[in-house]
Write a structure and sequence with these properties.
Cofactor: Mg(2+)
Shape: globular
Largest sheet: 8 strands, antiparallel
EC number: 2.7.1.180
CATH superfamily: ApbE-like domains
Distance between the termini: 23 Å
InterPro entries: ApbE, ApbE-like_sf, TAT_signal
GO molecular function, one term: metal ion binding
Strand order of the largest sheet: 2-3-7-8-11-12-13-14
Number of strands: 14
CATH class: Alpha Beta
Strand content: 15-25%
Number of domains: 1
Catalytic activity: L-threonyl-[protein] + FAD = FMN-L-threonyl-[protein] + AMP + H(+)
């Protein structure tokens, strides 16, 4: 559940639907992903909005990056405790708890020690024994269980897309597309190309408001052959069920988390879920067959 193990399989080229006005925007990187913001409006207003968006992304990096030793997440992982977490940090903790409950534990940020052990060929059984979201104590602060560490890379990109989009909406923008590894739309319609890592472009989704995220387990394998999307219940021993999973939802954070977890769930399990804000799921199996729920 991290950027290192996860490549978003949404095509880089995103087209506005016919009749859209001229758009301006920004491209860069954030939270380990290629990032882009597309919006329309008077140049001065667009420039001010993009400056604010970049400041938001810098704040997200300072909170959630695993590659910055001074980030809030890195400091929590190093010490096992966080006495005064920022509201946005706790918001993501709450989102993680909801996703963990909704998916029967398939979404679990405590897989970080296992990911590291597999990537660095460390003690995998010991790392797997540290998995368990229920050991994360939440109150005024945070306490991790012994040896635990968290990764938010299965949700932080989506959360960042949401925060940027919310900032644009507050400034009065009614039509914009934010892609911080996951897509969040204001207005629309927007045509989004959806790809499977092994089969290329599968088709297009039309997004009006809401968000879309795609996970591809086969996009990256760790030493020893484990997928970068790890099953927390089996210590990574059970391979993912799908070649790729695309989720449309009201928020990018929700789409991000569910697309990760659904890679580890069977079709009937996914179809039976009733999650507020979930709109549509596209599943691509190993044979390349597409199922839409």
């Amino acid at each position: 559940m991290q950027t290192r193990r996860r490549f978003l399989a949404i095509a880089a080229a995103t087209l506005a639907a016919p009749g859209a006005v001229h758009a301006e925007g920004w491209r860069g990187t954030a939270l380990g992903a290629e990032a882009a913001i597309t919006l329309s409006g008077p140049r001065r207003e667009v420039e001010a909005a993009l400056a604010e968006a970049r400041a938001t992304l810098e704040r997200m990096e300072a909170l959630f990056s695993l590659h910055r030793p001074d980030s809030a997440l890195s400091r929590l992982n190093a010490t096992g405790r966080f006495d005064a977490p920022a509201p946005e940090f706790m918001a993501v903790i709450d989102l993680c708890a909801a996703a963990h409950a909704a998916t029967g534990g398939r979404f679990d940020p405590t897989v970080q020690p296992l990911w590291r052990a597999l990537a660095e060929q460390g003690d995998v059984p010991a790392a797997a024994a540290r998995i368990g979201w229920e050991r994360v104590a939440r109150g005024a602060g945070l306490r991790l269980g012994p040896g635990q560490a968290l990764t938010f890379n299965g949700i932080a990109q989506g959360y960042a897309s949401d925060r940027v989009a919310e900032g644009l909406a507050t400034r009065g923008f009614e039509r914009a597309l934010v892609n911080i590894g996951e897509m969040r739309a204001l207005g629309g319609p927007w045509r989004i190309g959806i790809e499977d890592h092994a089969r290329g472009l599968l088709g297009q989704a039309t997004l009006t408001g809401g968000a879309i995220a795609t996970s591809s387990p086969g996009a990256l394998f760790l030493p020893g052959g484990a997928s970068h999307i790890l099953d927390p219940r089996s210590g990574g021993a059970v391979p993912p069920a799908w070649s790729s999973v695309s989720v449309e939802a009201d928020s990018a954070a929700l789409a991000d988390a569910l697309s990760t977890a659904f890679c580890l769930m069977e079709r009937d399990e996914i179809a039976a879920l009733r999650v507020a804000g979930l709109r549509r799921v596209r599943l691509v199996d190993a044979a390349g067959d597409l199922t839409t729920l």
